[in-house]
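Objective 1b: paired records.
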Amino acid sequence: MVDPLVLLTIVLMASVTYATRIGGYLLLRNRTLSPRATAVMEAAPGCVLISVIAPNFVANNPADLIGIAVTLLAATRFSMLPTVAIGVIATGLLRHFLG
């Protein structure tokens, strides 16, 4: 059973992530961005994801800590989307088997 507060948090964070993507596109679609501004726009979704993962760095749950290690390892090899998928799947499986 999914905690309603957790579900609400996930939905709100997904909405904010989507809003930053679509908002940036709508506001800046007819402008040429500097390389620095482009880098900032590309880093925004990663920052949101880090805010989700960061509390687990101080977690006592070994599954979460191992999941973070797997995600960091995946980040050295793959782009953002496969890394997120690997991290979510690995953490889910670890939580299931390790508790």
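Objective 1b, second protein:
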Amino acid sequence: MKQDIFQAIADPTRRAILTLIAIQALTPNAMAEKFDMTRQAVSKHIKVLHECDLIRPEPSGREIYYHFNAKKMQEFDHWLAQFRESWKTQFNQLDKVLSTLKQQK
């Protein structure tokens, strides 16, 4: 079953895994060493991230290295951009109100 990207990144461990492999590709064992959990637990998180295409496996000998899928995250960022502009406008308006209130004191 394909996972929802929002469910995938809602979990702090999965966000931490993404942060780790954004720097360098890692095997599940190497990832498990970074967390206080079993390799099997890390593998379940990896499965969710892989189902969302946020990470991609690359076999190398007997190991599988997981890479950060920047293209998928960029697609997500583009989707968020439409909201970012709205937030930016609202924050600018709030800055103006706060500045006006500060001047009135």
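The first strand starts at residue 55 and ends at 60. The chain has a mean pLDDT of 93.
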